Amino acid sequence: MQAENRAADAGTSQQRQYRFLGLDLVLQGSVLAPRAETELLASQAIAMLRETGDAAPLVIDMCCGSGNVGLAIAHAVNSATLLSADLTEDTVATAKANAALLGLSHRATICRGDLFGALEGQGAEGQATMIVCNPPYISTGRLEGESAHLLESEPREAFDGGPYGISIQQRLVREAPAFLKPGGLLLFEFGVGQERQAQSLLNRSRVFESLDFPTDEEGRSRVAVARLKDTAP
After folding, report:
1. Which of 9, 11, 168, 224 is deepest in the core (most CB within 10 A)?
2. How many CB atoms lie within 10 A of CB 192?
3. For residues 131 and 187, what is the distance between their CA atoms, to the nearest angstrom?
4. Given a cut of 50, is residue 103 above it in pLDDT?
5. Residue spans per domain, the chain
6. What CATH class does 35-228 carry?
């Protein structure tokens, strides 16, 4: 299972092609090239969404980037409606381009804004069957040191997860419950070695039940899967 980045020029120096879960997609401007490990998040989400039995699920894709995760889900689950969001013009434009490329524009709405603030006016509160997120999860300190090379060709906002690398996860766990149905699912990617932090965030929320921490091909936990409890404690 690998995401195959391709250097082939798609017509301009600002547009590149790549492959994600068998889908041919594009990158425009300064948008993060999806990593192979993110296919684990998308695959888990597709499998679990199919198991919910929801006839018309709403899926929210936070920090959508090029749109790869949410669009892969919508492509695999024909009954799903997708609501995606990210912070920059480049990411929103790229996600919209990929939705059109896959013929999913009629089922995918792409919004720009700061995390769930982007969804204001969409009427999504309490409606989502699933929320997925591939957030920035590298600490600011590492980006100024050993991981500084990542910023040579890709945007800081795609990597910088704050002082401890979990700032966006903290907000995600805090804000997601308002948009999930009771029993709704939250799946998010995290960095190598962050499993304990992810588990702690979910436990401290008191509204999520941790279900699983799927591992990559090297046996490392990279995704958190949690369910919103039917009733608050």
Report:
1. 224
2. 12
3. 6
4. yes
5. 35-228
6. alpha beta
Question: Would you call 215 helix, strand, or coil by DSSP?
Answer: strand
Which pLDDT value is given to residue 32? 76
pLDDT at 154 (0 to 100): 47
- The SS3 call for residue 84 is strand
Which two tokens mark 70?
């949410």
List, edge to edge, every strand of the sheet that includes 223-228: 108-112, 81-86, 58-62, 128-133, 180-189, 223-228, 208-212
Buried-exposed string 125-135: b where 16+ CB fall within 10 A, e elsewhere: eebbbbbbbbb
The residues near 68 (Cβ < 8 Å, ≥ 6 apart) are 20, 21, 23, 25, 34, 38, 42, 98
pLDDT digits (tens, 9 = 90+) for 106-134: 999 999 999 999 999 999 999 999 999 99
Its pTM stands at 0.85
> What per-residue confidence (pLDDT) applies to 231?
67
For 64-91, b/e burial (b = at least 16 CB within 10 A) is bbbbbbbbbbbbbbeebbbbbbbbbebb
Q: Which are the contacts of 120, defined by CB distance < 8 A and separation ≥ 6?
A: 113
Beta strands in the chain (DSSP E): 4-9, 15-20, 23-28, 58-62, 81-86, 108-112, 128-133, 180-189, 208-212, 223-228
Specify the amino acid at residue 55: A
User: Are the CB atoms for 135 and 169 separated by under 8 Å?
Assistant: yes
